[in-house]
Amino acid sequence: MKRSIAASVTTALVMTTSLAFCGGASAQTMDKVAKVGALGDQSGLYQDIGGPGSTVAAQMAIEDSGLLAKGWKIDLISADHQNKPDVAVNIGKQWIDVEKVDVFVDLAASNVGLAIANLSKEKNVVNLNSGSASSDLTGAQCSPNTVHWVYDTYMLANGTGKALVKSGGDTWFFLTADYAFGQALERDTSAVVTANGGKVLGSVKHPLNNADFSSFLLQAQSSKAKIVGLANAGGDTTNAIKQAAEFGIVSGGQRLAGMLLFITDINALGLNVAQGLNFTETFYWDMNDQTRAFSKRFMERFKKNPPTMVQAGVYSSLIHYFKALEALGGNPHDGRAVVAKMKELPTDDPLFGKGSIRVDGRKIHPAYLFEVKKPSESKYPWDYYKLVATIPADEAWLPLEKSVCPLVKKS
């Protein structure tokens, strides 16, 4: 059931780790009060990749930061943006002006992510985006208040697109979600395909949260392209893959490229359908001892699934944010100053390892090309991926010298 904007705010899940201070508290103490706003899709097609799980990850980051034991007061509030930029901005304004939120996290859906990036810049709060994919967040629409943490459309295109072209998939047709994310992903993947000697034969746009892909799949089938690129996500991707099987797309000789897939998507599809799919991610729960240890703790609270890379990014980005607050000695309310300190400090956490944040706000870490296992290869619950290749951090992302971000000074 859709809720009004007011209802989204007033019924937002609030998880509070401390009581708000009264007006008579000292300025020094008030400087150590911070509020986190987890703004995600709590009920729609992206709820499994972020949403409620992101709120759990944010709470874990607050507890693991160590700041509570050092006298900090950190509150957490969450709400459903319904994948609508206007809803998100109205909630965001209420949070900043009334709830005194200092930092946004999650933000799945690029149209929402870009809208909150603009609001964060206007209001000078911190914007830690792990849910949106559009590379414009660190490109033409970059901001001194935004850090783009987990993945972007350039990385997805560079990882999956390049690998498929080099393996013989040199003609492409795109099924593209008709909003900012899908358009950016098709744009960035098309550039990678053509740069590596391939050719884009065409594309078709479909509405967000689409149920029937039959007409779009018929166009892809008639194109005779070797690769049908799915420039969509969540339920749109899983619906398209399931219906492509019904249309005999793969059995007819074409290959599907899920340009953005999450472990929850693979689970929804099942290994019988998803086996053999190649895709790029920056986090996998079963990657090493550290990711497994975190995922075990996460699943003790969130019973539904192990952390997706968006949920892992919420945790990781907040851990680094809290390190910056501690380094500053307080005052979380100057967003630009906090982000500047985050860029100054090297990043290091058990989920993404060592990395850095560039001047354009792009978080830099390795990416991984995975293949979905066959059912016979999966040995335990959620054992879905096998690693095909590691893409080094200095190769995974758009080179800084090619960035169009106004924050990047050109020599």
TrEMBL record:
Q: Which Pfam families match?
A: Peripla_BP_6
What's any GO biological process attached to this entry?
A: amino acid transport
Keywords in UniProt for this one? Amino-acid transport, Signal, Transport
Indicate the secretion signal residues: 1-27
Name the InterPro entries on file.
BCAA_transport (IPR051010), Leu-bd (IPR028081), Peripla_BP_I (IPR028082)
Positions of the Leucine-binding protein domain = 35-373
Superkingdom as given in the UniProt entry:
Bacteria
Give the family per the record.
Answer: Belongs to the leucine-binding protein family.
> Mind telling me what this protein is named?
ABC transporter substrate-binding protein
* Species of provenance: Bradyrhizobium pachyrhizi
